[in-house]
Design a protein that fits this description.
With about 450 residues, this protein is of the alpha/beta class. It folds into three domains: about 80 residues, Four Helix Bundle (Hemerythrin (Met), subunit A) (Up-down Bundle), CATH 1.20.120; about 200 residues, P-loop containing nucleotide triphosphate hydrolases (Rossmann fold), CATH 3.40.50; about 140 residues, Orthogonal Bundle (434 Repressor (Amino-terminal Domain)). The protein has 21 helices and eight strands. It has an eight-stranded mixed beta sheet with strand order 3-2-4-1-5-6-7-8, sandwiched between helices. β2, α6 and β3 form a beta-alpha-beta unit. α1 runs antiparallel to α2, α2 runs antiparallel to α3 and α17 crosses α19. It starts with a helix and ends in an 8-residue tail after the last helix.
Length: about 450
């Protein structure tokens, strides 16, 4: 996420290395590189200039205090400015009305339909009863896709395939939701390859007819400045309430995230990556600024962990770790919980100092596949009693997992080392799993 921008900003701060004071000369060199980094990230020139002018005003003449180096001071100033540029504070979804109506808009290919499914998953986890509405009357595949997603996540969907009036579909869906106790209605509207009058009129008519509490504009974050221009066109007609950044796992330069709030003065409410339905996160400007500057995002990591790790089970596991009774069955459970938290490389990138070290490391989604195959080739007795693994048992496990004996022995050795490490860490299973070297995975 924003790797190129992060590297260029880090390089910009090198002008201050070894300096005892921020002055006109060293700050000018730093700001020149910061401005260039922003332009390369497809940030509008005016925004980049105002951003660096604001940093200069705050930085010049600042003295080093409490042994903080000029570089550290400049990073803090840039972090504060990045946070302000992206909205300062998180803007949460308003679901106070019953039913709450959420209108989803954006260009074709921006990820609207996938986002609608993710939003339903997010709201379902908050004990809401969402209804997905297929209001794209031009693209049958959109209705099919939304239907598949609804079945996958276990929520209701409203579809009228023969109805060619999007306004009528939306109104009928609201009536259906009220009759069936659905308290959040998510309406997936049609997109186009570019902004056109027909599209704008249709989505504006839907808004006028149903008066939604939230209008979310979905934007492909890989499109940079084009996304910002499109957002302005939509906002002029719809006056939307928030922005959703999608495809943040792709080759994202950062222009949309850094420019869109400034341009339309509307908050970024969510960010999305990947195709899995549980990869939708509230957008926190301060946390994103920290990630851009290579500081990680430990707060989000902990929140993801808390959502997956049961407190009662965690305490039981901690007792087992303290007694050195952590077994393969426990390990398999931990792996499955970590996988539910999202993309492994993104998770590790949230740990301060780790993101930079793994930027060129290819950590695949199936990174745990070999480990799981080994454990699942064991009997329940073997999983719960690692000491029972005799040479003949290892041979059988190797055959079942498609491995050789050397790999099984290496895995068991790494597992024993991890057990000792986790014991020393007082049972902090998440820290042990993510901070250490997981058995069966490359460094």
């Amino acid at each position: 996420m924003f790797n190129a921008l992060s590297e260029k900003l880090e390089s910009a701060f090198k002008h201050l290395k070894g300096q005892s004071r921020i002055n006109e000369l060293n700050v000018s060199n730093t700001l020149k590189d910061i401005r260039k980094a922003l332009l390369d990230a497809d940030v509008n020139f005016k925004i980049a200039k105002e951003f660096t002018d604001s940093i200069k005003e705050k930085a010049v003449g600042e003295k080093v205090i409490n042994a903080i180096s000029p570089g550290q001071l400049m990073v803090k100033i840039v972090q504060d400015e990045l946070t302000a540029l992206m909205g300062s504070e998180a803007s949460l979804l308003d679901t106070s009305k019953n039913p709450t109506i959420i209108l989803v808009a954006g260009l074709q290919g921006s990820g609207k339909t996938t986002f609608s499914g993710k939003l339903a998953t997010y709201l379902k986890a908050q004990k809401k009863s969402p209804l997905l509405v297929a209001a794209d009357i031009y693209r049958p595949a959109a209705m099919d896709q939304l239907t598949v997603l609804a079945e996958q996540i276990g929520v209701d969907i409203f579809v009228e395939r023969e109805n060619k009036d999007a306004v009528s579909i939306a109104q009928n869906a609201i009536a259906y939701a009220k009759q069936n106790n659905k308290n959040v209605i998510i309406i997936d509207t049609a997109g186009r390859l570019a902004v056109d009058e027909l599209m704008m009129n249709e989505v504006a008519n839907i808004k006028s007819a149903i008066q939604p509490q939230e209008i979310l504009f979905v934007v492909d974050s890989m499109t940079g400045q084009d996304a910002v221009n499109t957002a302005k066109a939509f906002n002029d007609r719809l006056d939307f309430t928030g922005v959703v950044l999608t495809k943040l796992d792709g080759d994202t330069r950062g222009g949309a995230a850094l420019s869109i709030k400034y341009t339309v003065n509307k908050p970024i409410k969510f960010m999305s990556s990947g195709e899995k339905m549980d990869t939708l996160d509230v957008f926190y400007p301060e946390r994103m600024a920290q990630r851009i500057l290579g500081m990680g995002d430990i707060t989000s990591l902990v929140e993801k962990a808390q959502a997956q790790f049961d407190e009662v089970e965690a305490k039981k596991l901690e007792k087992k770790i303290r007694k050195n009774q952590f077994d393969f069955e426990d390990f398999l459970t931990q792996i499955q919980q970590i996988k539910k938290m999202g993309n492994l490389k993104d998770l590790m990138g949230m740990i301060p100092g780790v993101g930079k070290s793994i930027k060129d490391v290819d950590i695949k989604e199936d990174a745990f596949k070999g480990v799981e195959a080994i454990i699942q080739s064991m009997t329940l007795i073997e999983r719960r009693n690692p000491d029972t693994l005799s040479p003949s048992r290892k041979a059988r496990i190797a055959k079942g997992a498609g491995k050789d004996i050397a790999e099984i022995n290496a895995f068991i050795k790494q597992f024993d080392q991890m057990k000792q490490m986790m014991k020393m860490m007082n049972g902090q299973s998440l820290g042990g799993a993510l901070g250490g070297r997981m058995p069966g995975m490359k460094r």
